[in-house]
Amino acid sequence: MSLANTKEPLSVINRPGNMPSHTDVRRWIDAAIDLVQPRVPRVCRRGDTAFPLTQRFDDWA
Fold first, then answer.
1. Among 5, 34, 40, 47, which residue has the least CB neighbours within 10 Å?
2. Rounded distance, CA 36 to CA 42, Å?
3. DSSP symbols for 7-52
4. CB within 8 A of 33, min separation 6: which ones?
């Protein structure tokens, strides 16, 4: 997971290659939000085509 504007890594998670990209992603997105939110006025999340499977859009709104 990285910042879009600077490409600065926020976290790196090594998982098996056959694991779907949306598996357990909520935990890592929440951790990244907690890390940057005190320093930025707004956080925009982006993801791949499996991103909607996180079922957290209402929580993040």
1. 5
2. 9
3. --BS------TTS-TTTTHHHHHHHHHHHHGGG-S-------TTGG
4. 43, 45, 60
pTM of the model: 0.62
**Residue 25: count of CB within 10 angstroms of its CB:** 19
Chain segment 19-44, per-residue pLDDT in tens: 877 777 778 888 888 888 898 888 87
What gap in Å lies between CA 60 and CA 58, rounded to an integer? 5
C-alpha angle 48-50-54 in degrees, rounded to nearest 5: 110
CA-CA distance, 32 to 3, in Å (whole number)? Answer: 9
Measure the CA–CA gap between 61 and 57, rounded to whole angstroms.
6
Per DSSP, what are the bridge partners of residue 6? none
